Q: What sequence folds into this?
């Protein structure tokens, strides 16, 4: 009897903690929306503050820039990671350690550090130092000439790929683990499919939830990234947000709500596909479904 | 050597050379060639990582040892790092902020995750997990502005507390723009992240373990103390390490909130390499290497704990 009471007490305590956490997460959202709509002159109750946001041409310009960067990064992440992760699962188990290390390293190299290194690598004197030329097989001097010439901020996209690497790799590799890659590939080969055809028509549909998760997490990360964009002088949506917020906190609040909705759409795309259905039944290790985000 | 031997075997299987008895010279060469083909799929990815992940780190280390490329091999950058109290203070602040938010997020998040895992309504559980995913991804500039709108000088909650409860936070010494304010903001993304990374470990606790413990006479507290917590402990430490790394590298949130008026290592690096007035890559590189060293220790602990967690919770 006493055990049941203490059991219920324990359950109540954990529910209480859950409730408090949810309250902590919800209050700033509600307060921000109210603050944004109040527009600094008390509650107006209309949407004129919102129309002022949408009327700003910089809003659309930076939003488009960020959308383009996010789309480019997502595409590059999938192109680089999917064939690599598939090949390592299929034929190169000895390459796993290397891949895991490369995918874990960005945890130890935050964007501000990565950006500092990249600035010196492609814009500084380091680009022509013999050691760098040798180690990069002569590619760094070549690329440092290409990067400023191109109109699109290619270097920014490349650095975002590295930032997205840990969780994008996790998502794709986890879904590859869930299907029997060897059997599927052998079955496809016995029917005459080549490597690429197998990957695109057999493996990809089977690991689609993981690929989608990787894509949406990458997308949402790039949409909110400030550090590298600021280092590389690119006028993206978060930079616009930061600049606007310094002058007009009410407009900033509305923009923050819009950003939240953007994150919401990205995550809602992930959830039905993978997280709940694939992850509900079986045990997994921490770190496998962590959110991405750039703080 | 072992690797190459296995490589060849894989390669032979790829080339369709099934007979292992006739391991002559041509076959071996074909096997090695096939092994190269097997590895060649990885070339674009590995080259990409070399150019945009490994070389920047190497150049940062090199820069810290040559004072940003201005001198020969010297420890001048590190002497400057350790010579100025403000630099050490930045490390102190960053580590304290990360530790405090990781511990708060880790403890409260783990308990909340248990509350979430024990919910009976599946739809509610799913809804809350999705909400946590969104909140964990809602960070950086928008989060900073959300908190200014909530707890800033004219923020919604600040004004509400002043009007209804006559509680003036700012006259009590609280400020969202200082250390403890920053703690509140960071905890916002740490809590849901901890919930997300702890849930799988909690789901991995088998009911049989509790039944066995109770059959052997354990009280609920005894079960938790002797069985569940020891199994969960590595996962919880790993989660907390993840939170620490997350907070330690965070730049955008603090930058948008305090506009550089708070002394944290990422803010300091940005000031040094992205400054409008002067650029000092030497000191910036040394600070960056300091960050990498701290984070490498954290990541090492993280992977060790994950490996230990997989002993009971792995698949």
A:
């Amino acid at each position: 009897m006493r055990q049941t009471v203490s059991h219920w007490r324990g359950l109540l305590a954990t529910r209480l903690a859950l409730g408090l956490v949810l309250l902590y997460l919800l209050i700033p959202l509600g307060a921000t929306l109210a603050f944004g709509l109040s527009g600094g002159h008390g509650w107006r109750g209309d949407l004129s503050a919102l129309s002022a946001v949408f009327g700003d041409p910089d809003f659309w310009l930076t939003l488009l820039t960020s959308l383009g960067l996010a789309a480019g990064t997502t595409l590059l992440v999938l192109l680089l990671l999917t064939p690599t992760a598939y090949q390592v699962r299929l034929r190169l188990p000895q390459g796993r350690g290397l891949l895991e290390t490369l995918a874990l390293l960005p945890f130890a190299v935050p964007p501000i550090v990565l950006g500092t290194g990249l600035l010196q690598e492609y814009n500084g004197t380091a680009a022509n130092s013999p050691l760098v030329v040798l180690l990069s097989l002569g590619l760094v001097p070549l690329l440092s000439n290409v990067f400023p010439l191109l109109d699109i901020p290619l270097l920014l996209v490349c650095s975002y790929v590295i930032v997205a690497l840990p969780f994008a790799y996790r998502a794709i590799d986890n879904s590859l683990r869930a299907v029997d890659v060897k059997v599927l590939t052998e079955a496809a080969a016995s029917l005459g499919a080549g490597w690429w055809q197998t990957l695109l028509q057999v493996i990809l549909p089977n690991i689609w939830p993981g690929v989608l998760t990787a894509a949406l997490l990458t997308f949402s990360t790039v949409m909110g990234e400030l550090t590298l964009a600021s280092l590389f002088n690119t006028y993206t949506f978060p930079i616009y947000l930061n600049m606007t917020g310094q002058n007009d906190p009410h407009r900033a609040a509305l923009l923050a709500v819009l950003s939240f909705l953007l994150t919401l759409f990205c995550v809602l795309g992930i959830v039905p596909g993978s997280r709940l259905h694939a992850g509900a039944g079986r045990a997994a290790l921490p770190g496998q479904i962590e959110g991405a985000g750039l703080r | 050597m072992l690797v190459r031997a296995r490589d060849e075997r894989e390669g032979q299987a790829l080339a369709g050379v099934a007979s292992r008895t006739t391991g002559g010279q041509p076959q071996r060469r074909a096997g090695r060639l096939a092994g190269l083909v097997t590895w060649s799929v990885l070339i674009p990815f590995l080259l990409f990582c070399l150019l945009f992940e490994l070389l920047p780190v190497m150049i940062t280390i090199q820069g810290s040892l040559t004072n940003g490329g201005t001198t020969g091999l010297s420890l001048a950058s590190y002497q400057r790092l350790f010579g100025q109290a403000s630099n050490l203070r930045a490390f102190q602040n960053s580590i304290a902020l990360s530790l405090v938010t990781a511990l708060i997020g880790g403890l409260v998040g783990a308990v909340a995750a248990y509350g979430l895992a024990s919910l009976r309504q599946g739809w509610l559980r799913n809804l809350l997990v999705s909400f946590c995913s969104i909140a964990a991804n809602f960070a950086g500039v928008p989060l900073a502005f959300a908190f200014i709108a909530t707890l800033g000088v004219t923020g919604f909650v600040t004004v509400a507390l002043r009007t209804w409860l006559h509680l003036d936070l700012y006259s009590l010494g609280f400020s969202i723009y200082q250390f403890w304010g920053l703690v509140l903001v960071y905890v916002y993304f740490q809590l849901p992240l901890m919930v997300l990374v702890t849930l799988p470990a909690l789901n991995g606790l088998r009911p049989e373990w509790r039944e066995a413990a109770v059959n052997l006479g354990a009280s609920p507290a005894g079960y938790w103390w002797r069985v569940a917590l020891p199994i969960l402990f590595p996962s919880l430490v790993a989660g907390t390490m993840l939170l620490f790394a997350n907070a330690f590298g965070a730049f955008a949130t603090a930058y948008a909130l305090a506009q550089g008026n708070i002394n944290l290592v990422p803010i300091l690096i940005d000031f040094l390499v992205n400054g409008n007035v002067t650029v000092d890559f030497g000191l910036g590189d040394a600070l960056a290497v300091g960050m990498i060293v701290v984070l490498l220790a954290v990541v090492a602990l993280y992977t060790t704990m994950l490996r230990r967690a997989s002993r009971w919770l792995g698949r």
